[in-house]
Amino acid sequence: MVPRLCVLFSAVAATSVIVACGKTHERESASSTGVAQMSLAVSSSAFAPNAEIPAKYTCEGQDTSPPLSWSGAPANTKTFALIVDDPDAPDPKAPKMTYVHWVLYDLPPTVSSLDEDASKHPPQGARDGTNDFKRTGYGGPCPPIGRHRYFFKVYALDTLLGDIGSLTKPALESAMKGHVLAQGELVGTYQKKK
In order of start, what are the domains of the chain with their CATH numbers? Predict the structure, then answer.
């Protein structure tokens, strides 16, 4: 007699879940390098996760980039990349676009933090991309209405991307495809005071 099989397969948010006769097995999605993607811990000494970003780092202050740090990168990391964006533009109640505030890539593997205002003095070897203010470097939160979320996303890559210009976020994401070993994010919020 052929044993009864009860297998259910579903793909949810890049995690495959297989249930076979009551037993659950999870498998992390692998990048095209064949390495399971890991998580980076991203933090800032300027604000806690999901807390308000101080005005100093916004258009209502000095508009300088906040300090950031990360840990947990795989040993074979060759570079890091950073994208800061706001998915709540222009109005969190009716978002229509993701507004990009900072694109930075080819950060050396020995770098695990960025000082305050690092946008003006990035680590040697790092390359600036173009944000949605149509300039390189950091452009701080400046939401037209409501409280927005700002995602500071760090990626550990298995390659040096090299000088491929002032990439936009989509161009950087395309260049990173298949090279992300680990990633993590820190979310801060901001609502204009005036």
Answer: 35-190 (3.90.280.10)
Any idea what the Cα angle at residue 175 is, between residues 172 and 178, rounded to 5°?
125
pLDDT bin (cut points 50, 70, 90) of residue 32 is very low
CA-wise closest residue to 144 among 74, 192, 108, 84: 192
The structure's pTM equals: 0.81
Give pLDDT tens digits for 41-94. 999 999 999 999 999 999 999 999 999 999 999 999 999 999 999 999 999 999
